[in-house]
Write a structure and sequence with these properties.
Layout lengths: L6 E9 L2 E10 L4 E7 L7 H11 L3 E9 L9 E2 L1 H17 L8 H6 L4 E2 L5 H48 L2 H21 L4 H14 L3 H20 L4 H21 L3 H21 L4
Parallel strand pairs: 3-4
Antiparallel strand pairs: 1-2, 2-4, 5-6
Helix pairs in contact: 1-4, 4-7, 4-9, 5-6, 7-8, 8-9
């Protein structure tokens, strides 16, 4: 299966410490670049998140955000009795020093730091919840990348089919174009050199024939197109290989354009270069 490097996923689940939420975004990148934004109280989960993402994704810039959802504030709080006893002791000592001061109100006590505390969280259960949540989000992210990757593969195959059509059109034109240009070249050389330069004419025509031979370029173009199709059928993380093949296709198309012995062949080479550029643009999105 072909995967795009662009995708988005979000998931949420309950945990002993409240509702957890995770958000994954991925965009194009030459290599795998994992960036984590994790709530301070969940920092211990960063190595697990990085490992899970690295197992499933080979290329792309992946942003992972892990945080508590809205229901985290609904986690029941408990009174810290040790903090209350300490506060009572300090209040009694302060009252002896300042007998005219008003006594503490209940609201003041509850606002005192450390009086209200969340129950001790089960770290193992929280870690398990984060693991399941991340796996679920990764499933959704990979599915989205796979759907877009399938569309990209279809686009590439259409471009390959169009290039094969252009090659099939240009192949019969080559002998006729070369023969016509060779005759025109011979005529001009004879006019310039006269009868005494017949040997020079034959040498120049032979040199032109060698330079205008595009059979090798046409064969290589067809071979590279075969490899593109094979790579797409193979699937997996093939973006770098497809990018290399696009570069090779472009090089052969440039050589074909440079050797073109006729206007139709030159036009065909230009169309091939445009199709190859479209392939290269799409390949940049493939993992």
């Amino acid at each position: 299966m072909i995967y795009s490097m662009t995708g988005y996923a979000v998931a949420s689940a309950d945990s002993p410490r409240g509702a957890l939420a995770i958000e994954l975004r991925s965009v194009n990148s030459r290599f795998l670049d994992v960036q984590l934004r994790v709530a301070e109280e969940l920092r211990a989960a960063e190595p697990v998140l990085r490992e899970l993402i690295s197992r499933r994704i080979a290329r792309g810039k992946v942003e992972c955000r892990l945080y508590f959802g809205n229901s985290a504030s609904q986690v029941p709080q408990q009174l810290n009795r040790d903090a209350i006893r300490q506060l009572r002791t300090m209040a009694a000592e302060a009252a002896r020093e300042f007998p005219e001061a008003a006594p503490l109100r209940l609201a003041d006590v509850l606002r005192w730091p450390g009086v209200l505390a969340e129950p001790a969280a089960n770290e193992d259960q929280t870690r398990i919840a984060i693991d399941r949540l991340c796996r679920s989000a990764l499933d959704e992210l990979c599915a989205a990348r796979g759907r877009e990757g399938a569309k990209l593969a279809a686009i590439l195959l259409r471009r390959v089919a169009e290039m094969r059509k252009r090659l099939a059109e240009v192949a019969p034109l080559v002998p006729e174009a070369v023969a016509a240009y060779r005759a025109k070249l011979a005529e001009r050389l004879r006019e310039a050199l006269g009868a005494a330069g017949e040997e020079r004419v034959r040498a120049e025509i032979a040199l032109f024939a060698a330079k205008s031979d595009v059979d090798e370029e046409l064969t290589r173009l067809a071979t590279h197109l075969d490899e593109v199709e094979r790579t797409l059928a193979q699937g997996g993380a093939v973006g770098k290989r497809l990018d290399f093949l696009a570069q090779e296709l472009n090089r052969e198309a440039n050589t074909l354009a440079a050797k073109a012995a006729g206007l139709k062949i030159a036009d065909c080479a230009l169309e091939l270069k445009l199709l190859i550029e479209q392939i290269r643009e799409q390949v940049q999105n493939i993992e």
